[in-house]
Please model this.
Amino acid sequence: MSEPNSKGEMEQKLAEMGSKIDELKGKASQASEERKAELDQQINQLQEKKEALQQRLNDLQEATGEAWDEVKSGFQSAWDELNQAFEKAKDQFK
Model:
């Protein structure tokens, strides 16, 4: 993802990730019981990362000036981590 320039862009990326996580949940529900437990754990970790990122985004409501730059940078780092975790989880479905 290129660096977000607005809160709206950040919200859009989080919504897209939420949809991707929901797709993984659907696939995990069709896995064997043993495999499902492992996949569910990874999905839960993705959800936690997404929720933490959502909280950072909520902090933007109060951010201005320099604070915006810090929040934007923090969002980018957290987004990169979430996206890497998603790709790793998605690979488990291949």
